[in-house]
Write a structure and sequence with these properties.
Elements: E1 2-6, H1 18-32, E2 36-42, E3 55-60, E4 71-79, E5 82-88, H2 90-93, E6 100-101, E7 104-105, H3 109-126, E8 133-137, H4 144-149, E9 162-167, E10 175-177, H5 185-188, E11 196-197, E12 201-203, H6 204-211, E13 214-217, H7 220-226, H8 236-241, E14 246-248, H9 277-288, E15 298-302, H10 311-321, E16 327-331, H11 336-348, E17 353-356, H12 361-370, E18 373-376, H13 386-392, E19 396-400, H14 403-408, E20 422-424, H15 429-445, H16 447-459, H17 464-479
Parallel strand pairs: 1-2, 1-8, 2-5, 8-9, 9-13, 13-14, 15-16, 15-18, 16-17, 18-19, 19-20
Antiparallel strand pairs: 3-4, 4-5, 6-7, 10-12, 11-12
Helix pairs in contact: 1-17, 9-12, 10-11, 10-15
This protein binds alpha-D-glucopyranose (GLC).
Length: 481
């Protein structure tokens, strides 16, 4: 199949979250399986050396009312053996960041990604890559299925092209005033209430869910949750209307980046057979985070600081938890209020709790390698990747029973034999605290069981190969529509 993969971030180029990891690993696996791919990405000025990439096209958006404002260039790069086309537009993408600065979204994000979605389809025609499948990801590229079914409805070029939409995070929908869509007047003036939000706004994700030929969430449980009032982020009815075309495909883990035996980001390597160096990673982690170097249980957490990640379940119980002989290391950036609360608590417990407001890839790897447990108390979690990385490093995940966390971790209380971690259920601080205390007792009293769980965890593999097979099945069923 010829697959056009549209994404707003791509690992090695630019990353703010898990989407970037998936956008790298899935296309590489599909290409490895013999499909022909192109990846398209905005040419953000954050991308290293973007300006030295060769220019392969200079175009301007057709049918737009004011064409001189939307001339654009296409630059070419590579990811493995896949060609990556980057859409360059000085005004839209030459900014300090991808979507926001100082936690405030750029006010014209709707316009920027409407432009990107339209520019991608025009580019592939010009460079003559006629896709069988256009694979869109999240709201940023969710207008593309609609363009295929409206603007390009009678285009000969796309007559055999089908679209699929992957929902990595349904809480972000891209809801924008119609005026932001001035360059796509058909969408701007649409009265289709399946894609609007109130009268004044267009909801990009709704457009994707309504028009894509097939839709998937990044885990089976999240796909199910999306169809419920509680888990659908206000779009349960939209997902319900597409229930026959909606499935869940759990992400894989990219073991070329996350394998403790060859990980370039950590100095001491280990594997299931030789785990001795894991404790060296732990001591190094304690050293570089300025914690006392000793044998207390270390809990790690790496996440965006948003409500989604369950920080509000952790904060109320932190003081209680830190009464015990434990260490907790949390890194991540996000909501300023959460950052300042966490900073304050960490100053009160300097020998037990380290909070760093940053995302540092090396440190993230060392936390996965050196911690004993990894915390993910998410309120919702479409898939989650860190728990898979944790498994690979024998760092037992402590997670809430939602979405992909529920699908990838085997709870000690439910299946002792095969357990790989611990799960709590209610989205309540006390449920988390109870679970943490239970894990502490487990750590202190059952070292052999702990070792057995580590071995279980390190044995589990979430290979991209299996997920890619499921994506192929989804693509084929889209083609049959
Ligand atoms: C989003 C989700 C996360 C998922 C990732 C990749 O970041 O929040 O759960 O793992 O996308 O699909």
């Amino acid at each position: 199949m010829r697959i056009l993969f549209l994404t707003s971030e791509l690992f090695h180029f630019v990353k703010t979250g898990g989407l970037a990891d998936v956008a790298k690993a899935l296309p590489l696996e599909l290409s490895h399986r013999g499909h022909e791919l192109r990846i398209m990405l905005p040419c953000y000025s954050k991308i290293n050396n973007w300006s030295s990439l060769p220019i392969v096209a200079e175009l301007s958006l057709d049918n737009a009312p004011n064409s001189d404002r939307i001339s654009f260039r296409v630059r070419e790069s590579r990811l493995g053996n896949i060609t990556v086309w980057l859409i360059e537009h000085e005004y839209y993408f030459n900014r300090n960041n991808l979507y926001a600065e100082n936690n405030v979204a750029y006010p014209d994000n709707g316009e920027r990604f409407a432009f990107f979605s339209a520019a991608c389809l025009q580019t592939v025609q010009h460079l003559d890559f006629r896709p069988d499948i256009v694979h869109c990801n999240d709201w940023h590229t969710a207008l593309t299925p609609m363009l295929l079914k409206t603007k390009y409805r009678s285009s000969e070029y796309f007559s055999n092209t089908k679209s699929v939409l992957t929902v990595h995070n349904g809480a972000f929908q891209g809801i924008f005033d119609r005026s932001q869509l001035w360059m796509l007047p058909d969408i701007a003036h649409s009265n289709n209430d399946n894609i609007t939000h109130g009268y004044a706004n267009i909801n990009y994700l709704k457009a994707g869910v309504f028009y894509a030929d097939k839709i998937n969430a990044v885990s089976p449980s999240y796909a199910e949750e999306l169809t419920t009032f509680l888990g659908g982020h206000g779009m349960a009815q939209n997902y319900m209307a597409r229930i026959n075309d909606l499935c869940g495909i759990v992400n894989g883990c990219d073991y070329s980046d996350w394998d403790p035996l060859v990980d370039k980001n950590i100095p001491f390597h280990f594997s299931i057979e030789h785990q001795g160096n894991k404790s060296l990673c732990k001591y190094l982690l304690q050293e570089i985070t300025s914690l006392p170097i000793c044998d207390v249980p270390v809990f790690g957490m790496v996440c965006r600081l948003t409500a989604q990640k369950g920080i509000n379940l952790l904060i109320p119980i932190l003081n209680d938890f830190l009464q015990h002989r434990v260490q907790l290391i949390l890194i991540g950036t996000g909501e300023p209020e959460l950052e300042s609360t966490l900073t304050k608590i960490s100053q009160e417990h300097p020998d037990k709790f380290v909070f760093k407001s940053l995302y540092d890839n090396d440190l993230a790897h060392l936390i996965e390698a050196g911690a004993d447990f990894f915390l993910m108390p998410s309120l919702f979690e479409p898939c989650g990747l860190n728990q898979m990385y944790s498994l690979a490093y024998g760092t037992l995940p402590i997670v809430r029973a939602v979405g992909g966390l529920k699908d990838t971790i085997i709870h000690y209380d439910e299946d002792r034999e095969n357990a790989t971690g611990f799960i709590f259920f209610e989205p309540e601080p006390n449920a988390l605290l109870t679970c943490l205390r239970r894990v502490l007792i487990f750590y202190l009293q059952e070292p052999e069981e702990l070792q057995r769980l580590r071995d279980n965890a390190m044995r589990i593999r979430y290979e991209w190969k299996n997920s890619a097979e499921e994506y192929e099945i989804m693509y084929y069923s889209a083609l049959q529509k």
